[in-house]
Amino acid sequence: MELDKMDENDWKYHGEGNKSLVVSHVQHARVLRLLKYSTEDDENSHKTTEQAFRHIQNIVDYSKNVMKPLLGEKFVHNGEAVKLPIDFVRQLSLKVQRERPESRCDKVMDTFSGCALCLPNLTQLSSCCCFGQHRPPLCIEIKPKCGFLPSSRHVTKEIKSKVCRFCMHQHFKLASGKWKRLSRYCPLDLFSGNKQRMYLAIKHLIEEPQNNFKIFKGGECIYSCKDDADVLQDLDELAQHLRPYFLPSGSLINGHQASKVVLNELIQVLMSALLSSWDCPRTVEPRKTHLPEGRVTCEASILHRDLLWNGNHCLPKDCVLAKILGTQMHDNLDIEGLNPLFRRVEQHLQDFPKESRLQIDGPYDESFLEKVQNCPAEDDGSIEYAVGKVHQYRVAMTAKDCSIMIAIAPCGEDDGLDQNLEIQPAKPRFSYSVSILDLDPKPYDSIPHQSRLDAKILNYYLRSTQPNHQEVDNLELTNPGLFLGRDREDCTLVFHPV
Fold first, then answer.
1. Rounded to whole angstroms, how far apart are CA atoms 390 and 240?
2. Could you tell me which residues come within 8 angstroms of residue 152 by beta carbon, excluding any fewer than 6 positions away?
């Protein structure tokens, strides 16, 4: 990428989150992630180039030196910080403004510093084999959220050990007008490793995507949250997009039945990708990570109790879900247990304002990772223990808010397949890659806000819910084999590195 020859017409709006806006190159598999600020945030909007560059470099360092060792080299792409021509950034801002959702326009793109994070475009496979078949790659983005229940002795309300944070937060978001419908998705079902529970978790994400599920085709977002849209119509439209990938061209299945078949196939592919154990040869049985029984069930989940308690609840040790869950569980005190330690760190910083060895704001290097991994098991009253737990909590919060990108593309007859595998010719075959995105460091000073938010969510849930949770679709819940297809053959996925 020649920085001195940047043309805004070579880039298009790709999407945005709370703190950054992303544009993608129209030809090359690259994206630029640019900071954005509230129009009222004078302090940040006038950061110098050096300050903005340092902020982005911190993101790169944190992703590379902290999250990559924890989550796995194969999954994390840290990118690089770049300085762009100011004129290019300003023209780009004007170009993408008309494409931005109105709900996001309360913040503006940083047009002062010229700094950005350059990353591979993970909605595409780098050299996919699908173009000969005129089918661009698909990419599914899943934001799984927290996959376990706290078991810390510091938790004061028993409900927190029974109902997961995501399910409680849904009620709070509904009341505040964030969403108009409750999502039936429960992260504990996705992280369970139980295929029936995982199937229904992904199905519920598709039905009510909110900010947790998106589908891209050829780099273009074709399916995401549309709160006012007719959900069934959206699903039929989605199935039309996906039909060439999952149904043979001569198939006689049509209408709503075709939609069900296509979406079923999509879910099967996603489950296979999420459960793939990347570090194990195909001929070796993957090592399993067994989940503690107390952490695998959420009382708010609408699934039938037979599904929650029967069957295996374990993940292949090196699959992407196991890596994320293991990193999330660095939060082993819960925010309630962390608060006194946060206050200990705050008091220490007041007493020693020039203290730098604690690495509160970085540098995010091997020393920071060592503090995360080698924190003492018991509180010895030291500042080292307190800051180690604070860092662990911040790492866990990053893992709770990350996104999984699953890029898939149809394989040709002989593309990338192991000759020893037995392949059914009628079944779809795909190249795929799995990556983890959104791995920014969570601000140290956001911990008090997280504590207040936790209390609000908990108190509202206790006030608003009744002892008996709503029952839905008994056929689906008591006989998931009708949807899961117990006797079907799994599709074949072929790992394709980014």
1. 47
2. 332, 333, 334, 336, 337
Question: Would you say 228 and 332 are in contact if contact means Cβ atoms under 8 Å apart?
Answer: no
Q: d(Cα 144, Cα 401) in Å, to the nearest integer?
A: 8
The pLDDT of residue 284: 41
pLDDT tier for residue 104 given thresholds of 50, 70 and 90: confident
**Angle formed by the axes of helices 255-275 and 320-328, nearest 10°:** 60
SS (H, E, C) 270-306: HHHHHHCCCCCCCCCCCCEEECCHHHCCCCCCCCCHH
Strands 403-410 and 138-142: antiparallel
Buried b (16+ CB within 10 A) or exposed e, 189-203: bbbbbbbbbbbbbbb
Residues facing residue 432 across a β-bridge: 408, 495
Q: What is the average pLDDT across 194-219? A: 93
Mean pLDDT of 26-45: 81
pLDDT of residue 234: 77
In percent, the amount of the chain with pLDDT more than 70 equals 78
Q: Is the pLDDT of residue 414 over 60?
A: no
5 has which bridge partners?
Answer: none
**Rounded CA gap, 60 and 67, in Å?**
10
pLDDT of residue 483: 43
pLDDT at 473: 41
Q: Residue 114 above 60 pLDDT? A: yes
Respond yes or no on whether the N-terminal peptide bond of residue 363 is cis (omega within 30° of 0).
yes
DSSP string spanning 66-100? IIHHHH-TTTB---EEEE--HHHHHHHHHHHHTTS
DSSP string, 404-465: EEEEEEE--SSTT--TTS---TTS-EEEEEEEEE--PPPPGGGHHHHHHHHHHHHHHHHHH-
d(CA 68, CA 78): 8
Dihedral, 156, 157, 162, 163 alpha carbons, nearest 10: -120
The DSSP code sequence of 163-206 is: S-HHHHHHHHHHHHTS-SS-----HHHHTT--HHHHHHHHHHHH
Q: What was the pLDDT predicted at 139?
A: 95
φ/ψ bin of 438: left (φ > 0), alpha (ψ from -120 to 50), beta (otherwise): left
| Residue matched to tokens 């109105």 | 102
